[in-house]
Amino acid sequence: MDTNNRSNGQKKISMMLGIALVTASLFVVEQAVSMATSTLTFSPRDAAAGTFPEVWIHGSKSAMDNEDPAVQVHAYNEHTYILRENKAVNYEGAFMYLLFGNEKALLIDQGSTASPALFPLRDVVDGIIAEWEAKHGQTTQLIVANSHLHGDHYAAWNQFVDRPNTLMVGLTHEEVMDYWGFSNYPEQRIEYDLGGRTFIVTGTPGHQSSELAMYDTWTDLLYTGDMFYRGRLYLEDWEAWAASIKRLRQLADEYPVTHLVNNHIEMTVTPKVDYPVGTTWQPEEPPMQMTLQMLDIAVDAIDDVNGPGIYKYEDFMIYNEIPWSYTTDP
Amino acid sequence: MAKYRTFLNRCLLLSILLTASSAYGHMLNMTNIHILVDEQQQSTVTVSIDLGQSLLSAEDYWAATQAPLNEQHIYLQPALAQLKQSLRFLVDGEVRNLQMIDFEIGALSLDAIKNPLTPQMATLRYSLNVANGERIGVELDQGLEIPWPCLVKINVFGQNLPQSRLLTDYDRISIDASLSEKPLMHTTSLASLMSGWMNIAPGVSWVAVGFQHIVPKGLDHMLFILGLFFLSSGWRLLLIQITGFTIAHSLTLGLSMYGVINLSAEIVEPLIALSIVYIAIDNLFSKQVARFRLLIVCFFGLLHGLGFASVLANIGLPQEQFLLGLGLFNFGVEIGQLTVIAGAYLIVGWGRRQVWYDSMVAQPATIVIAGTGAYWFLKRIAF
Lengths: 330, 383
Known about the structure:
The complex is a heterodimer of chains A (330) and B (383).
Chain A: H1 2-36, E1 71-77, E2 80-85, E3 95-101, E4 104-108, H2 121-136, E5 141-145, E6 166-168, H3 173-180, E7 189-194, E8 197-203, E9 212-216, E10 221-223, E11 232-235, H4 238-254, E12 259-261, H5 292-304, E13 309-312, E14 317-320
Parallel strand pairs in A: 4-5, 5-6, 10-12, 11-14
Antiparallel strand pairs in A: 1-2, 2-3, 3-4, 7-8, 8-9, 9-10, 13-14
Helix pairs in contact in A: 4-5
Chain B: H1 2-19, E1 31-37, E2 42-49, H2 58-66, H3 72-86, E3 87-91, E4 94-96, E5 99-104, H4 110-114, E6 122-129, E7 135-140, E8 150-156, E9 163-167, E10 177-178, H5 190-200, H6 202-214, H7 219-231, H8 235-257, H9 265-285, H10 293-315, H11 322-347, H12 356-382
């Protein structure tokens, strides 16, 4: 009897050791694969830190005399780049994003100027990628995608069509939906894997009917494109925008968000005052990044807006279903 | 050299500022060309263009919109002639002529035409003969100034996706697009799977999503099911446990989708991993299935249902088909589970009555299942 008990006890211990061995082996294999392939880890547990510039390069009094780079490059952190088109090249001063995961990089938007001579976006992106590849020992496929399908965000798209190891998502609604995997746009949430860096992608129509928002689980940045930024929010479909802003709020309720980042700055530092359309020099720009409190104000605005018109808030303006020629300019 | 470059940049800047008036303001009045090839290989080309900001003066375009229908073409003639000469469609490298079908024009006011921020678009429709397998490209003359950029969209019958090309002031020749019926597919994405099935049987797509969430994506759910498989000595017992698990996860899936219960994935996912460890250890250390095992399996079923719900919530069920979609997704999950069981039986299940089965198959497999569950649990709570 004792011998049986002892034998059973030994058997149980050996089985427990077996389980522990399997668990440990899986960790070892994971670590070995990670080391062998120079794999980077993008853990969503803690927000990866990053910084924004004190002020962005914001054009000049005379566009002709501007000697700033055509594309400002800011490294939010070593795997997250924010680019801005020089306002002297195009007054839109659009922001673009270059995000790295393992063996993949995602370029969101391609600015408002087609000419490589005036706006050498491809050269700039190639330079950043080459430097990143050298530092991290990886070869990177570039994915050229768009926040939405307006011409001021894909003008330099052609600069990338002949780029090796590059995937062009496409400029039609159908191609965009197919690439991201939407079967129920805009409500659906897509878990997008950029080489181990996970993004939650959802539809945010209202400004434009193919627009996307992306939440980066690694940095906790919520990217809101043209549907929410410090400026004139031109809405072509109020109902769709209202639903989209609620969807963003819901996303921010479920995930930690450090900042909301986006595509333009059109406001001044003075509350409720914007720069005129077409401004190429904005010396009193507020930061580009926005806060969750501002998102709350946008959600509350749903109750204020009762028809087409301009609705002013401290950090943004809602241009609801009115011709874009209407401005608040004096 | 630097001074020369600055001078060059200024010249370029000046040139673009002089020509950029048509591109002012979020580029709202950009030009669109849509090539649609139908089942009979007949192609319709639709050009959407802000004529009053480009090929005609605002006044002439306004006059055209105000003219009787049968006289409008007289006002449009200069623009149509310029387009005919400067907009070329190359099929397999050779220019193929367009035949105008009709046009639609309209404008709110002369002021609206003059303002590039309120584009008053004209729609021009042409026919173009093409054949299956040919390749098409679009070319614009250097002298043609239209509101940029110009987006070309090509839809071919039989292709599940359009192709897009971009023409700009600097890139006036597009890369060729294939007119082959061969379906284009960027990805093997869920959307492609869904859209493919949607055409045949709309409900099947939700079944497919449910199935896919077990095989191949739901490795943790698969291991849990295999844990049940390796312990159950007979089909009856296995069937009872699988049924209990199914009823339980259907319950929480439904309640969660209707918003009655809501538990964070950060809590649910580690618990699902723990459920795998528990079932496997129970297999190893229990001489026979405990009476309360069914209750425990049902409890774990509730947890797994919450896991399924987070997947389905991310996809988003359409409001008008909520209940149907939910049921079909769940049905797909069941088929996935049964597939796992059937696969396990085919590979090792036939040897269940053999003396070597326990020591050579069931126990080692269960140890691996427990070890994997523990690995997931640690990863899910620690990383």
